[in-house]
Design brief:
By secondary structure, the chain is of the alpha/beta class. It contains ten helices and seven strands. The protein has one domain: Rossmann fold. The longest helix has 26 residues. The chain is globular. The N terminus is likely disordered.
Length: 342
């Protein structure tokens, strides 16, 4: 029932239900995430944002592709490094930059951490910093979806370090027992902040943790866009059709430190450079060019337009006000309630 590793047969688009138009849109969203990250790092260094910056550069594929595959009202339980999930689901750029700059018009009204991306209209949860807690929330949502019988699913993400948390295990066990419509993703980037995977677990494949709960566990190349697309598509449809949950581990790597205040000097240059050579974005672009989906040079044109769109969204966000101190007292209780009384 559990396979420790899957391999994608071939490298083309033919086996996937992915039109040229959708393949190109996926390319655009992948580079949108990368370029937002790069812009955010500059904003941090320029002192133009409050709080810290957590980038996902290098590990976009395992995060963005599953979100890209979802329906509008499917649920996402993200963590602190899930900018690609918001971009993949289609969250507007203005909402993302309002969040990064902690403006009052942000989806969280400027009250959360700048990189706790969320967007209620598309059911992307604004997360907390509690590692793996989003697994529990997504499991609860999946239970509600099963009861409502609307054909919706929930997905959640965590890193390799999150698999050592009790929340992770409790969520998987409950989801497996109740055969919930959920898919769980592990972004194994080899480092839980500054702790290497070798000091976290003796496991080679973290997907093996699924065996304890009687659910399928699959380990894939998290930097191969097409492999992620194929594996996530099957797991999502399985969950949507009543087949229960799946745990998917993507082997990947974050290029930079845990955050922008982390110099990441616990890693060797050789390790970083070896993983940068496995960058998922140019690998995907190469396939699109070879198969005629992208014309030579078209990728650069798309990226230039993305950069322009980013600058426009950033300029708009910088004109917006910060939340006032008084707003700390709002949104504390559900409308019309206080202490449980109407």
């Amino acid at each position: 029932m559990v396979s420790s590793r899957t391999k994608t047969a071939g490298s083309g688009l033919a086996r996937l239900d992915l039109s040229d138009e959708r393949a190109k849109e996926l390319y655009r969203r992948l580079y949108t995430s990368r370029l937002i990250d790069e812009r955010g790092r500059k904003l941090f260094r320029q002192g133009r944002m409050l709080g810290n910056m957590y980038t996902a550069a290098g590990q976009e594929a395992i995060t963005l592709v599953p979100a890209f595959l979802l329906k509008e009202l499917d649920f996402i339980g993200p963590s602190h490094r899930e900018l690609p999930a918001s971009v993949g689901k289609g969250v507007p750029l203005k909402a993302i930059f309002a969040q990064i700059l902690a403006r009052a018009v942000s989806p969280d009204k400027g009250k959360s951490h700048p990189c706790h991306y969320g967007y209620a209209p598309l059911r992307v949860l604004t997360p907390a910093s509690t590692v793996a807690a989003q697994y529990v929330v997504a499991t609860g949502v999946a239970l509600a979806y099963k009861m409502q019988k609307q054909g919706l699913i929930a997905i959640a993400y965590t890193g390799d370090g999150g698999t050592a948390r009790g929340d992770f295990h409790e969520a998987l066990n409950f989801a497996a027992v109740h055969k919930l419509p959920a898919v769980y993703f592990i972004q194994n980037n080899l480092w839980a902040e500054s702790v290497p995977l070798s000091l976290q677990t003796a496991l080679t494949d973290l997907s093996d943790r699924a065996k304890a709960y009687g659910m399928p566990g699959i380990t894939i190349d998290g930097n191969d866009v097409l492999e992620v697309y194929e594996t996530a598509s099957k797991a999502i449809e399985k969950a949507r059709n009543g087949g229960g949950p799946t745990l998917i581990e993507g082997k990947t790597y974050r290029w930079y430190g845990h955050s922008e205040i982390d110099p990441a000097n616990y890693r060797s240059d050789e390790e970083v450079n070896a993983w940068k050579a496995k960058d998922p974005l140019p690998r995907y672009e190469k396939v699109l060019v070879e198969e005629g989906v992208l014309k030579p040079g078209e990728g650069a044109e798309i990226q230039a337009q993305i950069s322009k769109d980013i600058e426009e969204a950033l300029a708009w966000a910088e004109e917006q006000p910060y939340a006032t101190p008084e707003t700390a007292y709002t949104d504390v209780f559900a409308p019309g309630t206080f202490g449980g009384y109407a």
